[in-house]
Amino acid sequence: MQHGKYRFIVGFLTVPLGLYALFVIWPFIQSIYYSFTDWTGLSPDFSMVGFDNYERMLDDDIFWKSLQHSLLFALLLPVVTIGLALFLSFMINVGGRRRRGGPVISGVRGSAFYKIVYFFPQVLSIAIVALLFAFAYNPDSGAINSVLRAVGLDDVQPLWLGDPDLALWAVMGVLVWSTVGFFVVLFSAGMASIPADLYEAALLDGANRVTTFFRVTLPLLWDTVQSGWVYMGILALGAESFAVVQIMTTGPGGPDYSTTVMVLYVYQKAFRDGQAAYATTIGVALLVVTLAFAAVVMKLGRRERLEY
Amino acid sequence: MGSTSAENHGTGDNGTSGVGRRALIRRSAALGLLSVPTMSFLSACASGGGEEQEKAKSGKKTEKNPLAVNDTAQMEFVLFDGGFGKEYAEDAVKVYEKNFPKAKVKFSATQKIQSTLQPRFNQGNPPDLIDNSGAEQMDMGVLVGKKQLADLTPLLDAPSYDDPSKKVRDTLRPGIVEMGQFDGDPVWIMYYAYTVYGVWYSQKALDSLDEQYPETWDQMLAVCEKAKKKGMAGWTYAGKYPYYVPFSLYPMIGKVGGREVLDAIDNLEPGAWKHPAVKTCFEAYYELYKKGYILKGTPGLDHIQSQTAWAQGKALFLPNGSWVENESAKVIPADFDLAVSAPTGIDSSDKLPFGTIWASGGEPFIVPAKAKNGAGGMEQLRIMLSEESSKNFTSKVKSLTAFNGGTDGIELTPGLKSGVAALDKAGENVVNPRLQDWYVQLQKEKIGVSGLGEMMAGRITPVEAIKKIQGFADEAAKDSSIKHYKHQ
Fold first, then answer.
1. Kind and range of the H or E run holding B191
2. Which domains does chain A have, with CATH numbers?
3. How many angstroms separate the CA atoms of B272 and B274, rounded?
4. Contact check, Cβ <8 Å, A305/B49
5. Cβ neighbours of B29 in A, within 8 Å
6. Which of A173, A223, B240, B264 could form a Cys-Cys staple with A250, CB 3.0–4.6 A?
7. Is B2's CB within 8 Å of A283's CB?
8. Which of B122, B301, B454 sits opposite A43 (nearest CB)?
9. Are B198 and B422 within 8 A, CB to CB?
10. Which CATH number is B197-359+432-478 given?
11. pLDDT tens digits, one per residue of B22-67
């Protein structure tokens, strides 16, 4: 069977790799090339300018702010989202009290219902989620401040998206809300495939829920968590963060640059200011950040695979 | 990218293979995920070849056809489908088709001007007439700088549609031609709509306070105080887009300090923002915040939310443009009695009289330099600048056009009527600050959001705001990556 195996694999991979090279690798190379030009994006003429765009980027305060916010997104959002999703899916699948006559391992009461509810936000497009929350954050008549007023907190009426100290957190909250459901479902599927006898053995040994989670569930789920981590980090660096910042925030990107992120800055430079070459330069920086993020996660997450 | 355990330990599903199947799938998936969001939208902007397309031969110049349009050539017209809709343009296209029955008109309306047209500019085959407007507007400065636009002087010097003895340029409202110029004589843009900026309010609400629109700042504060006692805020504005504040603040600066102050600001002259008139006006606006005359929560409202709160009577005054009547039509009550006024000044020592107002063109139409049938595009514009088309536009979308007149014999809505009255009162004293079309980023995100927005939210003082804004302006003046303009 070994004979010709590689030819077989290559035969299958040619088409996808070709498509990948054409639609992914080639644009990468192109945009690196454009980052050394002064292309406006509005006419076909441009000339080479060497490292001018890179020098300019290093001097650009807004770029550094957007980098800072993007890094914060990439570090914090996966921790919060995946932590929360792990907790919720553990409670749904494993964390329930043992009921008389029921299976050994089960979720909390009503877990089937929760599973569906958590998935709801995933069904909505991110643009709609962002719009809904923009309404909810309205300081004058939005849902959040109305609730605060209703419970008598008339003096606590934050400006939310209008306050530079709160806006970034308000945006992050929306991203967590809209993505956590997906990971709950992903992790639930992973947990369902862990054999029940492992849990039974742990319970017989007197393990409580916390121990079970850290000693049984998490190690067996590690691969899924790791991919989830990379996936979430990329969402936080890429399209999702762009959508919420662009739709929800002051300016967008404000107030006073408190919410600007790299993808938004790329977009503004390319499509608002007619500086496509500079935008691709920031795009290259974003590529470096994304690659570094994936490399770090893969490196830190390397563990011996457990078979079961 | 780091490798995974399966490879190193050979414990994958297939013990003899070098690469575990799962690991392979996982790694390629991760790689795919990694690259797609980062770059997918950059791939859309690859610059194209740029061969010139063949131009249509010009037709015969006659009295009816002063621009010598080829009566069999196709004319392509792309409209921004925004607040004004597309009906007015479709009506104008019908006139073109009637005048040139053998020509085919390809008309389309879209909100995505940039996404649809940017690639066509790059490839050198743009349409013949474009309404370059909306959120996806293509940067005019870059288009002009890269010689992508046709000079509209032939159109302006052609006889007007209604009266052959008058040139088109003589039928336009003040400022329209100048706005289309960037550097020197050529006119690159024809602004079709005419917008009146100022302070918008409900005459009914003012009547209920037993007040007139205030002409001096002391009166303004008195009116706000009176409103506050009745539980109504004096002002609200689009807090999330604070670049609406200049709609009344800039003409106020012009009124207090004279036109030169606004011109110096537009020209990015050093120290332009340090002029005492700027400080006086900034302090006046800051006082609105200090005295609690601004609707609570305003910095967190977007334009629609602030307009809604204002229409509900939660606030008296709103800096805005004449599109507000159409945009907020659904929430403005029938008995609101919408009115606009030129901004309140400081007192009688101001350089210009009360009534000094900001009015300028909106809906910029352009004819690309590389268009196949540029003459056709200009002829379409000439039709749109006729009295009949102008009236059609005004009655359909409640906005004035660049055509001077065109309001007789049609019924005007309250806001429009008050806008026409405000223009009459202003007479010669129409100012036209250009920052918002010359330096978009500077005006919107720097001066607007980071300067005025922060000041109106009370997070920085007027002195700090001026220092910050002067810094932004100096940066923009030095920035070699943006094109700089000067008032002629």
1. strand B190-202
2. 1-25 (no CATH), 61-300 (1.10.3720.10)
3. 5
4. no
5. 227
6. B240
7. no
8. B122
9. yes
10. 3.40.190.10
11. 554 455 444 444 444 444 344 344 454 444 566 777 777 887 888 8
How far away is chain B from the Cα of A20, in angstroms, using its nearest Cα?
A: 8
Q: Tell me which residue in A38, A280, A294 faces B42 most closely, judged by beta carbons.
A: A280
Structure confidence at residue B39 (pLDDT): 40
Residue A101: C-alpha distances to residues A97, A98, A105, A106, A192 (Å): 12, 9, 11, 12, 20
Dihedrals phi, psi of B154, to nearest 5 degrees: -55, -40
pLDDT beyond 70 at B9: no
Assess whether the region B75-195+361-411 and the region B197-359+432-478 belong to the same CATH fold: yes
A188-223 pLDDT tens trace: 888 888 888 888 888 888 888 888 888 888 888 888
Q: Is the pLDDT of residue A1 over 60?
A: no
Question: Could A290 and B34 be called an inter-chain contact, meaning their C-beta atoms sit closer than 8 Å?
Answer: yes
Assess A94–B contact: CB distance below 8 Å, yes or no.
no
Q: Give the nearest chain B residue to A40 (CA atoms).
A: B142
Q: Give me the residue label for tokens 């690639």.
A: B119
| A230: nearest CB among B33, B124, B143 | B33
CB-CB under 8 Å, A160 with B45: no
**Both tokens assigned to B187:** 């006119």
B295 touching chain A per CB within 8 A: yes
Q: What angle do CA B435, B436, B440 make, to 5 degrees?
A: 100
CATH fold label, B75-195+361-411: D-Maltodextrin-Binding Protein; domain 2 (3.40.190)
Q: Which residue has the tokens 């609105």?
A: B288
CB proximity A141 to B under 8 Å: yes
Report pLDDT digits (tens) over B29-40.
444 444 444 443
* Confidence band for A110, pLDDT divided at 50, 70 and 90: confident
